[in-house]
Amino acid sequence: MRALGIDIGTTTVSGIVMDSESRKAEEAYTIENSSFIRSDQQWEKLQDPEIIISKVKGLLDKVLDVYKDIGVIGLTGQMHGIVYINREGTHVSPLYTWQDKRGNEKHFENKSVCEILRQKCGIQAYSGYGTVTHFYNAMTEQVPDGAESFCTVMDYLGMILTGRKSPLVHAGNAAGLGMYDVKKGSFISEVFKKMSTGMEILPEITEELEILGTYKGIPVCVAIGDNQASFLGSVDSAKDTILVNMGTGGQVSVYTEEYFSVDGIETRPFLKGSYILAGSSLCGGRAYALLERFFRQYAEALGIKDTDHYEIMEGLLRSGNINGDRLRVDTRFAGTREKPALRGAIENIGTDNFTPAALIQGVLEGMAEELYEMYVSIENTIHIPKTKIIASGNGIRKNVFLQEIVSRRFARELYLAEQKEEAACGAAKAGLMAVKELSVLDTLGINR
Asked: What pLDDT, on the 0 to 100 scale, is given for residue 33?
């Protein structure tokens, strides 16, 4: 049997065809998402679900025309964001993405929704998470007419493919929406009461890898979050591995079969009876992209265009021309989930080290340092040291210098994830587990 995994990312949509026996991707597809909606509000980050679904279905049908033996379709995608659904199972809103910052806007007596949740409910809340977005919309009377429920964009894709009228959301995605008690496996009703918001709009939850229905006779598995999918698609020995992912954002993830609470770290439901401890950097690979943009703008001001600045940046690093003490670069340019107003910094500037090469090196080291500090918090809590690092995501896969820096900072040998479209591979594996073609223990490399 072959499985098809689909990953709806923020910037691209990916698909892979996987053989159930080898668990290898036989073919990979990537197309641009290109669905962002222009807004007058800088904090508003929206995408068009109609465009996304059209692109995904086009990709899906293209693959199914070539591969006639696809036995299951697995889904994953960008976590936290939501789209509102009416009773017919059709979207009535844009996709409010994970990058949307309305939860931090001080529209309520100079307080933000996140601040109100902390003060009123004792909840650490993050802008971009679906329930925070919904609270803001409800408090500003912006919930669309006809909205019966909401879900992630990959959950909505599952509905469209199978003809479901209401969403069924995996526990991992439900936790990604926020206001969710991971230990109890349910949304926190007290918060919704204190915020004077009804819970009837919340989606149905499952802890199992259920089959939603079929698309052209092919079973479609319930969607899982891209963090959990990337772990599934990258790691073959869950208990002793650190997963470092560097894409638009950055993440460090660790598997555990016991529930832990770690400051600044999210405990996310994984496969039933297990969790992922995940630390997330909001900038991640975007920090390096911001530096490239800085150099590109200067070059264009000089009249130099159509230049591969990433190649030039790597050339500067290869030259080894980094004199004096290292620059210390804090790459929290977009803040953190806990402190959204926090900004990055460049320190230890001297007369010898204020050079492009040193700045490039400092940014890469800052990206690694932010994730390393999160990992230290995890290790100090669970006291189970991990022996190796798997790296995934194009931000690190395409940058050998970042690979070396991460390996050095974590003091462990680093291996690149074998499959390039890690999240799509994880979605395919989830689908194979849902139809009992793969076992959970075998997939995670766990012997009990």
From this structure: 93
